[in-house]
Design brief:
This is Putative transducin beta-like protein 2 isoform x4. Pfam families: WD40 (PF00400). The protein has about 450 residues and is α+β, with helices and mostly antiparallel strands. The protein folds into 2 domains: about 70-245 and about 265-405, YVTN repeat-like/Quinoprotein amine dehydrogenase (Methylamine Dehydrogenase, Chain H, 7 Propeller), CATH 2.130.10; about 415-450. Helix content is about 15%, strand content about 40%. It has 6 helices and 28 strands. It has a 4-stranded antiparallel β-sheet, with no helix packed on it. Strands 2-3-4-5 form a 4-stranded antiparallel β-sheet, with no helix packed on it. The protein has a 4-stranded antiparallel β-sheet with strand order 6-7-8-9, with no helix packed on it. A hairpin with a 5-residue loop joins strand 14 (about 220-225) and strand 15. Helix 5 packs antiparallel against helix 6.
Length: about 450
C-alpha cells in the first residue's frame, strides 16, 4: 500500500479527521476479527511512518560497484586532499567543512576516525610528517601552513589519537591557491607550490630555505616530492613537466655526506618530461622513484623511466602512453584529471571528471572504466595505498575505496608465466607459494564475478 501526504500545514488536520472518523467507526471495529484488527494496526503504523515522507528527499543513495570495497564517511563538505602515513596505517583527509579526519586502515572495510577542527578556515592540502606524529595543512583563506601535533593514548590495548594541537604556523608566502604540499621522507624539507608559479622549500621550523618565483610553466597545476627525497616535480599549463634536484648535485659530495645529514636545500634543474600536446594536470611517482606517470586532458597519460644518467645529458625514456577513449563531459571539468601509479608500477589509475579508469602499464590497455563515481562533482584526488591492493579516491563528501582488480589479474598472469617457464622458481617450496598466491587471487576474482585474463 502506498500513501501520499499533503503539505505539512495540512498534516495536523488530516490526522485529527482520521481520529474522529476512527471514533465514529468504534462500533464497527468491535465486530472485526482479531486478524482484521491486526491488519488495521499495521496499516495505521505504516500511515504514521509515511506521514513525514517526501518524494523530493535529498538523502544520497548507497554507492554499489563490484570493485568497490567501502566508503569513508564523516565529512560534510567537499574533500580537497588526502595523504597516507609512512607506515600505511592511517589516511588523513581535509575538506571544506573546516575539518581534518584521520582514518585507521588496519581493518578495512571497517574503520575508525579521529576528527581535527581547523580554526576559522579550511584546509586545501594535507600531508603527514615522516614519523607520523604530526600533520601539515595549507589553509585556504590565510594561505599558511599549519602544523598539528598529534597526541596518542592506549585504549583497549590499541594506540589511538586523543588530541591535536597547533604547534607551529609558517609565515604567509602565497597569494594564490596552493597546488602542492609535502614533507620529504628524511624530514629535512617542506615543499609548497602555488598556482601562480612559485615553488618554495621550508625547513621544519618554517624558515624559507629556497624559493623559485616562476617555474616557467605559465601556471602550476601540481607539485610532488619523490619518495627518496631527491626530486621535486612540477606540472602546469605548459605541456612539459619540469624536475629539480634538492641539495648537492654531484656524486662525490653525496658520498662524503653519506654518514651525515646534508643541509643543502638548493634546487637545481635536472631534466624535463616531454611529449604531451597540452597542459599536464597531474603527476605521480613510483615507490622506488624509478618511474613517473603524467596525465593530460589533451592526449591521455604517459609513463616515463627516470632511472637515467641525466647529469650526462641522458633524457628520460618514454615507456608507454595511452589516450582517453571518451572526451571531457563539460568545459568546466577541462583540467580535472588525476593519475596514480601502483607501487609495482604495473597499474595506472586515471580519473577523468567523475570517471575512474584502470590501465595495464605493460600494454597500455584499458581494463575497466567505472563511470560516475561521484554524482555531484569530479574526483578531486587519487592514490594507491602502500600495498597496492586498494585505490582511494576523493570527491564530494566521501572517500571511495576500490579493489585494484587489475593488479590481481596481472599477478595471476605473471605467476603463471613463472611456473610455465620456471622463472624464479628455485625449489618446491617456491612453487607451492606461487600456486597458493594464484589460487587466492582467483578466489577473489570469483567472489566479485570478475573473469580472469586469458
Amino acid at each position: 500500500v502506498k500513501y501520499y501526504t499533503e503539505p505539512e500545514q495540512q498534516e495536523t488536520t488530516e490526522i485529527d479527521d482520521k481520529k474522529k472518523a476512527g471514533d465514529r467507526r468504534g462500533s464497527a471495529n468491535e465486530s472485526r476479527t482479531p486478524q482484521q484488527n491486526l491488519i488495521q494496526q499495521h496499516l495505521v503504523q505504516n500511515l504514521n511512518r509515511n506521514m513525514h515522507w517526501r518524494p523530493n528527499s535529498n538523502k544520497p543513495g548507497i554507492y554499489t560497484d563490484p570493485w568497490h570495497l567501502t566508503s569513508l564517511k564523516g565529512h560534510t563538505a567537499r574533500i580537497r586532499d588526502m595523504d597516507f602515513s609512512s607506515n600505511g596505517k592511517f589516511l588523513a583527509t581535509c575538506a571544506e567543512d573546516r575539518t581534518v579526519f584521520v582514518w585507521s586502515l588496519t581493518s578495512l572495510p571497517a574503520t575508525r576516525s579521529f576528527r581535527i577542527n581547523v580554526p576559522y578556515d579550511h584546509a586545501t592540502k594535507i600531508c603527514w610528517s615522516p614519523d607520523n606524529k604530526a600533520l601539515l595543512v595549507h589553509t585556504h583563506q590565510e594561505s599558511t601552513v599549519m602544523v598539528f601535533k598529534l597526541d596518542k593514548c592506549k585504549k583497549d590495548k590499541e594506540s589511538w589519537f586523543s588530541g591535536a594541537t597547533n604547534s607551529l604556523t609558517f609565515p604567509k608566502v602565497f597569494d594564490s591557491e596552493c597546488v602542492g604540499l609535502q614533507i620529504s621522507s628524511d624530514g629535512r624539507h617542506v615543499m609548497s607550490c602555488s598556482k601562480d608559479g612559485k615553488l618554495i622549500l621550508f625547513d621544519t621550523k618554517g624558515n624559507v630555505t629556497q624559493k623559485i618565483d616562476d617555474t616557467g610553466l605559465g601556471s602550476n597545476h601540481c607539485a610532488r616530492l619523490s619518495p627518496n627525497a631527491k626530486f621535486v616535480i612540477v606540472c602546469g599549463f605548459s605541456p612539459d613537466v619540469k624536475v629539480w634536484t634538492i641539495g648537492e648535485d654531484n656524486e662525490k659530495a653525496s658520498t662524503k655526506q653519506s654518514s651525515q645529514t646534508s643541509t643543502d636545500s638548493t634546487l637545481r634543474r635536472a631534466f624535463e618530461l616531454t611529449g604531451h600536446s597540452g597542459s599536464v594536470c597531474d603527476v605521480a611517482f613510483e615507490m622506488q622513484t624509478l618511474r613517473v606517470a603524467s596525465v593530460s586532458r589533451a592526449d591521455g597519460w604517459r609513463l616515463y623511466d627516470i632511472d637515467v644518467k641525466y647529469k650526462k645529458g641522458q633524457s628520460p625514456i618514454l615507456l608507454k602512453k595511452a589516450s582517453f577513449e571518451k572526451p571531457a563531459e563539460s568545459a568546466a571539468e577541462e583540467e580535472i584529471s588525476h593519475v596514480a601509479l601502483s607501487p609495482d608500477s604495473n597499474v595506472i589509475c586515471v580519473s577523468l571528471g567523475s570517471d575512474l579508469m584502470f590501465y595495464e602499464t605493460e600494454g597500455g590497455t584499458l581494463d575497466r572504466c567505472i563511470e560516475k563515481v561521484y554524482t555531484t562533482g569530479p574526483i578531486t584526488g587519487l592514490k594507491f595505498d602502500s600495498t597496492g591492493k586498494y585505490v582511494f579516491c576523493t570527491g564530494d563528501k566521501h572517500v571511495r575505496v576500490f579493489h585494484n582488480v587489475t593488479g590481481y589479474k596481472i599477478e595471476i598472469r605473471e605467476n603463471l608465466n613463472k611456473l610455465k617457464h620456471n622463472t624464479g622458481v628455485s625449489n618446491s617450496a617456491t612453487t607451492e607459494r606461487i600456486s597458493k598466491t594464484i589460487e587466492t587471487s582467483r578466489k577473489f576474482l570469483e567472489s566479485i564475478g570478475e573473469p580472469e585474463w586469458k
